[in-house]
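Throughout our pipeline, every protein is held as a single compact record rather than as scattered files. Nothing more is needed to write down the fold, since each code stands for a local backbone conformation. The record that follows is passed on verbatim for readers who wish to inspect the format.
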Amino acid sequence: VAPEVARIKAKTDLPVIVGFGITTPDGARSIAGIADGCVVGSAIVKEIGAGKSPAEVLSLVAALAEGAHSA
């Protein structure tokens, strides 16, 4: 992913956001360290679809955000 992000950033001043396969706080941290941001929507939808409680989903959201912000 890093080479592709660098290639895109070399062509634009716009923020580069990556959002494929990010399902863990470590994954969010890794991508946020390379790109300008990350999208974790599918991971959240998957938890909701699995019947997780709102508290469990919010816990995942908080963990993903912490991972991204700690990059």
Summary: The helical segments are 2-9, 25-32, 41-49, 54-69.
